[in-house]
Amino acid sequence: MADRPNILIVFTSWSGNTRALAEAIAEGAKGAGNGNVDVTVKRARDTKRSDIESASAVAFGSPTYYSYMSGELKALFDIALPFKNSFYRKPAVAFATGEGGQLKCIQSIEGILELFEVSFVQRSDILSAGLAVQGRPDEGAIRQAKAIGRKLGDAGVAYACSMGRKNIIAGKT
Ligand SMILES: Cc1cc2nc3c(=O)[nH]c(=O)nc-3n(C[C@H](O)[C@H](O)[C@H](O)COP(=O)(O)O)c2cc1C
User: What pLDDT sits at residue 127?
Assistant: First the structure.
């Protein structure tokens, strides 16, 4: 675990829609902990096991490809099973863009995060699509993404504090 809480935002994007959400989440997260947080935005293909293990909170986003997440993000999850413990109770959120099928995409990401037993700061449900956006994110969607980023950042700070306390009790620091 890094000294400062680290908020990790992982995404895939080819034409920029999902990247815009990732960047807005990052901007929101930077305001957490009075700014005493590190925020990292990474493409799924560049994300390593150590990035996830050292993160205090995580966000995963993808464009909808054939009613599912991108292959790139799925490939990351496919190698994550051996270190699924590093997701346990970690604050997390999913985000997606699409041309109508984005709910299926966000649900596919949330399904895996649920299996890894993260602590969702928000998730889609029957009443709300969560951060599943159709087309290019407009001002409202960007505002929503920033607010979610702040929530994720705050939860990441709390998570890092609780892990720090555990380490002190276990005599690890
Ligand atoms: C190969 C491919 C498959 C797609 N399949 C779907 C789909 O099943 N449902 C949907 O709503 N949009 C689909 N789309 C549209 C993209 O999800 C959408 O344009 C997305 O916002 C692009 O994100 P990006 O700008 O971050 O790359 C597909 C696009 C591509 C390139």
Answer: 79
DSSP 64: -
- Pocket test of ligand 1: the residue of 11, 13, 65 to mutate, having most ligand atoms within 8 Å of its CB, is 65
Q: Report the nearest atom of ligand 1 relative to the CA of 14.
A: 27
Q: Is 93 exposed, middle or buried (0-12, 13-18, 19+ CB in 10 A)?
A: buried
The closest alpha carbon to 122, from 101, 98, 147, belongs to 147
Q: Name which residue sits closest to atom 22 of ligand 1, judged by CA.
A: 63
Q: Which residue stretches of the chain have pLDDT < 70? A: 1-2, 165-173
Ligand 1 near 67 CB (within 6 A):
yes
For 141, the 3-state DSSP assignment is helix
Of all helices (H) and strands (E), which one includes residue 111? helix 102-115
56/38 Cα distance (integer angstroms): 10
CA-CA distance, 19 to 173, in Å (whole number)?
37
Question: What domains appear along the chain, each with residue ranges and CATH number?
Answer: 6-168 (3.40.50.360)
